Amino acid sequence: MSTDKLQGVFAPVVTPFYDDLSINVPAFIAHCRQLIADGAGIAIAGTNSEACSETFEERIALVDAVIDAGVPGQRVLVGTGCCAIDDAVALTRHAIDRGCAGVLVLPPFFFKNVSEDGVFAYYRELIERVDDPALRIVLYHIPALSGVPISLSLIERLVQAFPDAIAGVKDSSGDWDNLAAMLERFPSLSIFPASEVLMLRSLPLGAAGCISATSNINARAIASAYSSVTEAARLQDGITAVRKTLEGFPMVAAVKHTLSQQTGDAGWHHVRPPLMPLAAEAATQLKHALAGVRAAEARA
């Protein structure tokens, strides 16, 4: 296993669909290439990718498509968490086989109010069944959606039991105190907040970067802010304004609507049920709000 820590800005890549809601693979590849060119890594098959609305075969195919298109595996994280351990094992092995940098693993999310012992057993089974020294797991803490938190005590148990396999944590709780506690207690891990705003605040405390939905539409600025203290100071207000604007809308639909505006490709509007695209009024509000942010940036 590599001893290099995972770090940097990763975009949890949103997935483009055709009108019939099948995946537009060429548009997906083009978007991934643009994100890499803008200085970000990519995270495939995460929450913002609508991975839980995609089939097992689709998730495998998207990883293959990106790697076969020449995107370097060391810039790729893959979401492999599933309720069924065997599915998680197969997705994880595939990501390793394709040379990806790491896997982002949700806890099993259907059964709620499960014990910490049960969640530990899930990760233990995954690690032992994969049985590969190249395995690098980023634990995915997103309790608002999963309903199954990754507690500090669980992280500690997993690190003690599997120090070579547990590489980091993505903290999507939005809770600053929780993020600060992770950074303090686990300095050897790559801790990624799910917001570039929290990244800017936590970099001095040792954050590894961020895995942020808005990197899909603002990757160059966020990657520049991560790479340079001077750039962070210059770009902070604009980065924060973009993020706060998008947070006022359903995130996946808002990111996709913005991509449709940026690329001129109306297909980016499509989401799979149960998600819904932005209503016309909300889309207009978002367009005007972002235009105001960009105008303010130009004047700064």
UniProtKB/TrEMBL annotation:
It holds the Pfam family DHDPS. Its EC number is 4.3.3.7. It comes from the Bacteria. Signal peptide: none annotated. It is an enzyme of class 4 (lyase). InterPro entries: Aldolase_TIM, DapA-like. The keyword Lyase applies. One of its GO terms (molecular function) is 4-hydroxy-tetrahydrodipicolinate synthase activity. Keywords: Lyase. Belongs to the DapA family. This is 4-hydroxy-tetrahydrodipicolinate synthase. It comes from Cupriavidus numazuensis. The gene is dapA_5.
